[in-house]
Write a structure and sequence with these properties.
single chain, 242 residues, alpha/beta, four-stranded parallel beta sheet, two-stranded antiparallel sheet, 14% strand, globular
Length: 242
């Protein structure tokens, strides 16, 4: 009588921590493969054609208006805030600024005293100024989301982008109003934009209901027509060569 002994197969014990580690490892590998593919992918423009990075229109390269900067207003060099200088407040102005700081979270009194097109120092590292860029670059739509932003800080953001962006690369600036109820951001803002900017370059898009930052950005992206989307805060300043 022949007896057949069954072989016992021992499997390694898989704990929850080991399983989680395996999932993380596989996810990281997939992300690396995807990233490598994106970095090696060709650039696709709005016209539908594609070309490898550095080879667009024969691969022409050159300094891309590193110091492009214009302004339409005329102020003295000693005016408040010029060249990034600080603004000194005294007396009643100082008291008001401290009171309003609790609401605005920045010094709105000083901001309102500064030109909307003020000059600011070039703070780039010298090596950054030596960088070379492709001459043929995609157009950009700059999307600025705001909700009850202060007048001067909002418009200073717009002017800084407009004045320091080569026009051939700046397709548009979209001001996405996320249901502001600040009085000056209503008809006054619409009138100011109409009187000071090309409506095809600076556009105002209003949300009928409060969206929140992420949903508002989606709305801005849907309204944009440029090849590249750039999202900026509503209280920043673009510098030369940005």
């Amino acid at each position: 009588m022949v007896s057949h002994a069954r072989r016992k197969i021992f499997l390694p014990r898989i704990t929850l921590s080991r399983l989680l580690g395996l999932v993380i490892l596989l996810s990281a590998a997939c992300a690396f493969i995807l990233l490598a593919g994106l970095l090696d992918a060709p650039i696709r423009g709005s016209s539908g054609h594609s070309a490898a990075v550095g080879e667009r229109r024969g691969g022409s390269r050159g300094k891309r208006y590193a110091d492009y900067q214009v302004r339409s207003d005329k102020v003295e060099a000693s005016a408040p805030g010029e060249n990034g200088a600080g603004v000194m407040l005294r007396g009643e102005e100082l008291n008001r600024s401290e009171i309003l700081f609790k609401k605005e979270a920045f010094n709105i009194i000083a901001s309102d005293m500064i030109s909307l097109q003020r000059s600011i120092p070039d703070i780039r590292d010298p090596k950054c100024k030596e960088l070379q860029y492709d001459v043929d670059l995609p157009s950009a739509s700059v999307v600025i989301i705001f909700h009850n932003e202060a007048w001067s800080s909002l418009l200073r953001t717009v002017w800084s982008v407009l004045n320091r962006s080569p026009p051939e690369y700046l397709r548009e600036i979209i001001l996405l109003d996320d249901k502001s109820d600040r009085e000056e951001l209503g008809e006054k803002l619409e009138k100011y934009l109409a009187e000071n900017f090309d409506p095809n370059v600076v556009r105002l898009v209003r949300c009928k209901e409060r969206q929140g930052l992420i949903s508002a950005r989606v709305r801005g992206a849907e309204a944009a027509v440029g090849d590249v989307l750039i999202f900026l805060d509503s209280h920043c300043e673009a510098n030369v060569g940005w």
